[in-house]
Description:
The chain is mostly helical. The chain has a domain at 224-359. The protein has helices at residues 15-32, 42-46, 48-69, 76-89, 94-118, 122-142, 151-173, 177-199, 201-222, 225-228, 233-259, 265-296, 307-327, 330-357, 371-376. It is globular, with a radius of gyration of 20 Å.
Amino acid sequence: MEKTGTRVPRHVVLLVPAGLAMLAGLDGALLLLGLPAPVSLDRWSDVHGPLMTLGFVGTLVVLERAVAVRRRGALVAPALLGLGGLALLSPLPLAVGQSAFVAGAVGLVGVYLVVWRRQASVAIAVQALGAAHAVAAAVLWLAGTAVPHLVPCLAGFLVLTIAGERLELLRVAGPGERVEDAVWGLACGWAVASALALLWPSVGWHLLGAVLLALVAVLVRHDVARRTVHATGLPRFMACAMLAGYAWLAGAGALWLVAGPVLPGPGYDAALHAVFLGFVLSMVMAHAPVILPAVLRRPLPYRPVMYVPLALLHVTLAVRVLVGDAHGLDVVVRVGGVGNVVALLLFIAVAVTSALLGPVDRPVRRAGPGPVQQATSGLTVGGVR
Length: 385
């Protein structure tokens, strides 16, 4: 299915629908902000959330996991998610894209079953439970559930996937079974809270906030990012991005715990983007120097300029949430939203440029890898080790 060396692997073509989903999702974001966009289609704004979560980030995460499995059939899952995103952008009935998302999410669960047979672990179980949330979100959306009510499942997909990845890395430091049990218990708690958020919102959303805060506390307490933030280069960049992401995730958890279901209005915008921009996108930026090489078979060297889009993301998100949403200032929300779009596009430009420029020349060290390098080796959002 793929060839290494100087040739580009065939599965790289699956990045195309992910990229198109991202661009259309950003277009839809501008429309939702009430701003002019390159393409003014109401449908693109209507599918913005699922398109960005499953069509863009989901395709990237699933593609990386599928590549790691090294089975041709595993690539069906990211292909279906990518095709689902393309279908949503086309004049085809909405159900076509939604059905493809369902099939792609189910395929991801199948990929995790393959991984589980090879190496069963709590970390894989947490990620598989995240994939089950993706299935639930896609099925519910196909059944007609409004997007705001899908947030616990959509967020559960990516949050639990990343939590499982971080837990997988924690095993290097040997945190003990108690930490694994705590993360697994909280992952199950998320599943319960997600169901209650649909059936009994006044209870489920509060519970979801409590589970999220507890999960962040456990992960931050044991995450190697607390140590690697004092390092240099890529380890420090990754740690800064991850710790900032955790802060936004905790903010969303606190909002849900106190306010409960905040489906319309500024509270919804604040919590939604704290999770999907502040946490998820920050984690994607953190791991991009490892994710993309695993998929592209081409290095993406770290360069200090990567801090620019990362900082822009968090500053503009703070403007959007802490000033615009908190004080009901629509103009400020729009300014922050545009800044969020620019930050993502700028990071992609920086990443592409860095990949084209090639590896950074560094002095050769004769000593073996230190604890910082060991701690960041094999890190990804999707599971390649």
